[in-house]
Structure formats: C-alpha cells, structure tokens
Amino acid sequence: MNSLSLIATALCCVVVVFGGLPFSSNAQLSPDFYAKTCPQLQSIVFQILEKVSKTDSRMPASIIRLHFHDCFVQGCDASVLLNKTSTIASEQDAGPNINSLRRLDVINQIKTEVEKVCPNKVSCADILTLAAGVSSVLSGGPGWIVPLGRRDSLTANQSLANRNLPGPSSSLDQLKSSFAAQGLNTVDLVALSGAHTLGRARCLFILDRLYDFDNTGKPDPTLDPTYLKQLQKQCPQNGPGNNVVNFDPTTPDKFDKNYYNNLQGKKGLLQSDQELFSTPGADTISIVNNFGNNQNVFFQNFINSMIKMGNIGVLTGKKGEIRKQCNFVNKKSSELDLASVTSESMEGDMVSSI
After folding, report:
1. What CATH number has the domain bearing residue 78?
2. Is 69 noted as a catalytic residue in this protein?
3. CB 3.0–4.6 Å: which of 26, 135, 224, 252 could bond 63 by disulfide?
4. pTM above 0.90?
5. Rounded distance, CA 308 to CA 293, Å?
6. How high does pLDDT run on average in the chain?
7. Does some domain include residue 348?
8. CB neighbours of 339 closer than 8 A, spacing ≥ 6?
C-alpha cells in the first residue's frame, strides 16, 4: 500500500467510527479550510514525515510531544516554534523544554515545501497539528481528520511554559490541575498520557525513583522489582543521567495500548505515568483498565482528546499571522532566506510528563 493510500485508509476508518462527532468545538476551524488554497497540504506533510521516520524511529513521538508542548502554553499557535530573539524569550528555553524538544527542523522542512506550492496560505500551527496526527498513523496508531484554520502567534511565553507544563514527578492532583486549566478532563488526561506508548526519556528524570524516592533512600515502591533492576542497569546511580530509556519496554516505537498494560504491571517509566494507576482510590484506575483491555476504546478516546486539545486557544480570522518561516515572526522572517534557515534538531528527551 503506498503512502497516500495508507493515510486515506486511516482517515476513512475515522469517518466510520466518528462520523457522528463534530470535528471541532471551534466553529471557525474546518477540515476543508485549505481545500481550495492548498489541496496538496496533507500529502506534503505525510510524505516528508514518512521519509524522516525511516531514519529516525523517535520522530513520531517527538512531533506529538512538540504539539502537546505548544498547546499547553498559550494555545495551539506554534509559539513553541519561535526562536529566541531580542524581543522573544523562547519557550524552547523553558525548564520543561530546554535541551529536550526534538525535530523542529522537520516542521521547517514541511513549511518550506508548503511555501513552494502554497505561499502565504498555511500556518505553522496547522502544520504542527497535522504532523502530530500523521505521526500517530506512521507509528501504527489512529488517524483522524484534523480541523484546520489556525493562525500563528506573534509571541511566545516562556514563563507560562514553565508554569503550565506538568513535570515527570507530578502527582495525580497536579496532573489533573494542569489539564483542567486547559479545559481537559480526567479522561483526556489518561487518553493523552497514552502518547507515552512511544518515545524515550533521559535517566535524569527517573533517578530519584530508582534510588532515593521522596528522600527515603529507597526505590519507588510502585515500581515492579524486575523492571526496577532493568532500569538501574540502564541508569546507574552515579551516571550522568543522559542515557535514554524506552517509555514502553516491549514495543517502544509502536502506537498501541501497552502503555496502560505497563501501568497495570507497575512498569510506568515516569512517576507521573504510574500515578494514574497506583494512586490509591483514584478515578483514573478504571480508565487505565478500560484502555488497557481494549485498544479500540483507547484509540477512540485518544482521537477525541487530541482534537479537543488541538482546539485550545486557537487564533483564527485576522488574529495572529501566517508565518513565512516557523521560527520567527514575519517581521524577522522577511530578513531571512526561507530556504536556508532551519532549526537544529535538539537531541535531548522528555522533561515534562506530556
């Protein structure tokens, strides 16, 4: 099956399952927004991501995470893509993002190709949102028809990134609070956390769980003993903490329900992951069990929550702008050669818990 057939099949499946659901809670967004102005958009996004994924299996997880870290700050407006300038304190330098975000260069590759065929038509915010959905498909996960029509922000907010993005040691109450602040409920929290079925995390962010949990001098008791020993081999106590560990020890590059099965077996990598299942009396436990027992139910809820998250704080109409280059607002972009400017790929891994 060729690339375009693959994505078409995935999207058709979504229509069958979700045909009765609204595409967006924001009436100004529409799946057909670029039908006339840039009909090639989705094929360009898919082809570039498919090519990159063949040499970088971590790419899908990195793109999905980049979308999360954009939407949780000041809405899905591509503010996370803005580089530091004399007037912009980049969100990329916020604590949850510094030395952590990956594959911003891939979004720039897509933007460059889109500008060649549809100049000044497609926002970076829409490209990033589309790329997250395609990344799910490329890793074996669900596809969905993305509501489009977002515009790009003129600013970034580093302090808000530090405040809004939950960390790897967040308690369940802290996670719920962070998600509720974005209009996302407990089911959304558990569904979106399922993106941790993909990707890697640096040892730095789990060392306390392995050796000195809550300053007890002992490992986190919610960790399975066999899994604990495996992680301790990968993350030695006195090591630099830069080794990377798979979120899912069984199918690390496949989008599936194993994340929830891992939580059931006390094999959640981050404390914030395991909190969903190991917090006594938590209402998230039944949701984890439901998703862990039925992958289709997980996929359906993941789609709903991704669409919901993708509508947070969007700029539409005449708000914001359509950036010519994703890393700079247009005033700065006009001084640059679009074809020659790319953002370097940052080779770190997870800092925040989403």
Report:
1. 1.10.520.10
2. yes
3. 135
4. no
5. 24
6. 86
7. no
8. 112
